[in-house]
Amino acid sequence: MAADPLQILVLYGSVRTQRRGIGLARLLVRAIEARGHGARLADAAEIPLPLLDRMYKEYAPGEAPEPMERLAGMIRSADAVVVVSGEYNHGIPPALKNMLDHYLEEWFFKPAGIACYSAGRYGGVRAAMQLRMTLAELGMPTISTLLPVPQVQDAVTPEGEDRTPFLAKAMDKFLADLAFWAEAARARKSEAGTPY
User: Fold this and answer.
1) pLDDT tens-digit profile of 101-125?
2) How crowded is residue 188: how many other Cβ atoms within 10 Å of its Cβ?
3) Tell me: the pLDDT tens digits for 11-39?
4) What DSSP letter does each residue of 71-126 carry, written as one string?
5) Whole-angstrom distance, CA of residue 141 vs CA of residue 83
6) Is the pTM here over 0.70, yes or no?
7) Domain limits, the chain
8) DSSP bridge pairs for 43
9) What is the tens place of the pLDDT at every residue in 115-169?
10) CA angle in degrees (0–180, nearest 5) for 130-170-100
11) Does domain 7-192 have CATH number 3.90.1750.10?
């Protein structure tokens, strides 16, 4: 265990009854913790944000709804973010976009990794490409390594059990890449702050 472990937020934005990516999110939380980092899961089904009307910053201090305040605290305390996204009609899930769009400055300068999935063979990569643009606009640089999981219904159980011969190795590379950039960003912020 590192003396000052990274704090990594796993953001999962599907609220469908039969959602399958929750298993991937849970598996990632355990893999992050196994590397000696802290991990928290922000699950859209457990953090019921309203559809975006007012951003978090548009509320007076202490007046934002409790779920919005709770997620803001989780974001602020994170050194990095893993965004777990399914692919809905070649795009990202609406609940995930809603979670992202409620905040702005809270996301700034936090490296992000994208773990994507689909029921088909492409593993959600079309959604991941759209997500890279959104995260960049929110001030979150994304790592180059992508974690696509095809046929997620067979690859991971809802409880987060890996059923594949490839996912553990892919996750190791993905999380090593994220940790490298998160540690670099944290060191730079500690030395010189952020540009704005």
Assistant:
1) 999 999 999 999 999 999 999 999 9
2) 12
3) 999 999 999 999 999 999 999 999 999 99
4) HHHHHHT-SEEEEEE--BTTB--HHHHHHHHT-SGGGTT--EEEEEE-SSTTTTHH
5) 12
6) yes
7) 7-192
8) 12
9) 999 999 999 999 999 999 999 999 999 999 999 999 999 999 999 999 999 999 9
10) 30
11) no
